[in-house]
Amino acid sequence: MPQDSAPTLLRDGSPAAPAEPRRPAHGAAFDWLDEARDERRRAGLVRTLRPRPADHPLLDLAGNDYLGLARHPEVTHGAAAAAQRWGAGATGSRLVTGSTELHARLESELAAFCGFEAALVLSSGYTANLAAVTALTAAGTLVVSDAGNHASLIDGCRLSRARTQVVPHADPEAVRAALNGHDGRALAVTDSVFSVDGDAAPLPALAEVCRTRGAALLVDDAHGLGVLGEGGRGALWAAGLAGDGDVVTTVTLSKSLGSQGGAVLGPARVIEHLVNTARSFIFDTGLAPAAAGGALAALRLLGREPERAARAGQVARKLHDRLTAAGLAAVRPDAAVVSVRAPSPEAAVGWAADCRAAGLVVGCFRPPSVPDGISRLRLTARADLTDDQIDTAVGTILATAPTD
Ligand SMILES: Cc1ncc(COP(=O)(O)O)c(C=O)c1O
């Protein structure tokens, strides 16, 4: 018993016998985890958390803060002011107590900015994708899903009771063939910009295929909002599909808008349906006011400074052009993600570690996060990177590149 704790007394005032110290029971139920861990080690696929200090001197090409807004004073002030006005948490589901006037304002400004009739804000882009896929499908619906889609769309398909047909990457004719074989409701789902390679989906062709087959199109614009379209209005705007009655899009507030949260945008009747049926909306606490306030401030700032969107794309293309000119294999970026091939998972991990040791943080994508088993360094361009920082990043990546 600790020296400073008072003894527990029995009813007659006498001290109770000290409790036996709790011994950890030996459990074998999780022994299989050791085998799984060893397997990960053998395959070079161990993941570790690396807590980031508030101020570190490293150059960051791994985060998704494409416009450099996460620490912009207007955005952090928007977040702080919202927390002070509305509280640290939303206090409940949006349908109970968690819907504030701030959420409503964010929804109407986001919808107007992106050119859609209505929007619904959720706690993350992940839950937004679960909401959109599950609420817009039912048993008997065919979902046609691009092989390169983000895990959150894939999980939405898994949670839905629909039949999912995975089609080859960025292939409208494969979508057409899948839809041709189906009678009844159908939904085609795709990322706008694929998170692994940074390439863009052929949205106009996909929309045309869906239109001819009477199917709906759901586009995850996590990597397009803030980078593509006039002033960063997104990939649907760029493709002339914003506001189309058969098109729904999801976005995250955690990348270009530098905050946290997600949203579904589309026709008002789709949003009304989601409010009534989407489980990841209904059974989830509303987005924290600070995140809503930060995202709203970022959205307004982007409206005033549209050049940030174009700059993010320019930085990405500059990184790509310099790295490929030096002989590396990189995919030409359609937005702000630049993907550089690595010879193996181990080489990718070592390369990223060497970059870090030299002061540069880059992403490292390995199986199972990559659908084709090819490991990559993943670089994210930021609108606020200076030319000197781009030079430093390119120099570091080339100097640490694996030799075979
Ligand atoms: C394409 C895509 N969709 C959805 C998400 C999920 O967004 P969030 O991080 O807001 O949950 C991500 C985030 O990594 C993403 O890259």
TrEMBL record:
User: Which Gene Ontology molecular function entries are recorded, alphabetically?
Assistant: 8-amino-7-oxononanoate synthase activity; pyridoxal phosphate binding
Q: Which pathway does it operate in?
A: Cofactor biosynthesis; biotin biosynthesis
The cofactors required by this protein are: pyridoxal 5'-phosphate
Spell out the reaction equation it catalyses: 6-carboxyhexanoyl-[ACP] + L-alanine + H(+) = (8S)-8-amino-7-oxononanoate + holo-[ACP] + CO2
Which residue numbers delimit the Aminotransferase class I/classII large domain?
58-397
Q: Which domain of life does this protein belong to?
A: Bacteria
- Indicate the secretion signal residues: none
According to its UniProt record, this protein's enzyme class is transferase
Q: Name one Pfam family in it.
A: Aminotran_1_2
Q: Which biological process annotations from GO are given for this protein?
A: biotin biosynthetic process
- Tell me which InterPro entries the record gives: Aminotrans_II_pyridoxalP_BS, Aminotransferase_I/II_large, AON_synthase_class-II, PyrdxlP-dep_Trfase, PyrdxlP-dep_Trfase_major, PyrdxlP-dep_Trfase_small
Q: Where is this region: Disordered?
A: 1-27
EC numbers on record? 2.3.1.47
Query: Which keywords describe this protein according to UniProt?
Result: Biotin biosynthesis, Pyridoxal phosphate, Transferase
Which SUPFAM superfamilies would you find in this protein's record? PLP-dependent transferases
* Subunit structure comment from the entry: Homodimer.
Family the UniProt entry places it in: Belongs to the class-II pyridoxal-phosphate-dependent aminotransferase family. BioF subfamily.
For this entry, the protein name equals: 8-amino-7-oxononanoate synthase
Q: Which organism is it from?
A: Streptomyces auratus AGR0001
